[in-house]
Amino acid sequence: KKMKFRPCIDLHSGQVKQIVGSTLTDDSSPSEKATDSALETNFATNKPASEYAEMYMRDGLTGGHVIMLGGGNTDAAKSALAAYPQGLQVGGGVNDTNAKDWIDAGASHVIVTSFVFRDGKVDMDRLSNLVSLVGKDRLVLDLSCRRHKNDPTGPYYVVTDRWQKYTDVAVNCETLQMLGGYCDEFLVHGVENEGKRCGILEDLVELLGKDSPISVTYAGGVKSLGDLEKVKLLGNGKVDLTIGSALDCFGGDVSYDEVVKWHTKENRK
Known about the structure:
three-stranded antiparallel beta sheet
């Protein structure tokens, strides 16, 4: 397997944005637009989501994700999927009532977190139900995780509900092996570093490369082009990388074109 760069489109209130993940809070009602003053936004644009999707299609990038942060994003997400059918995964509020609709709307996969974690544990009934609805090969589990504040070297725990709620599920070999039987790949946001351009969580990337039995994408904290090589090395070539806020197309200073060049060269070998 060759390491891939995986692009992203993050949507907030119908707009393409890049925000600092750890500043997201739960809206009282998910259908209301988040008017959260504490939300730190790195980037916002009026360029439609579909334009980013077209750019990713043009550059031959597959397996990227569209994430809906809160309500008011359905139309924007659908327009991106329509622009690049089967080229993007979609996540944010996906459950057993809408997963099939997202696949029908052109998503290659649905990404699920909060729905399959309940009361701090994996809800196996919900997970099995999703697998029977869309198929294992269409399901991505989002194991976004953070450490407990009082245990800075302890395990990473899966967090749900806009990354505010800790589960009892540690991201470790056992969890990855078990859940790997129910999905096609994992998406892992290193929440603490997400959107901060402060460098990647190296130990997390290493763990994913060592212990994930299936494809896995890491996101969070990339600050330079060199992080691609770093992830390739630490993740043993098995961990793909998403870059958000650091890219120039999202207002950062890492050249999107250079990243695409790196990816193309890697995947031509």
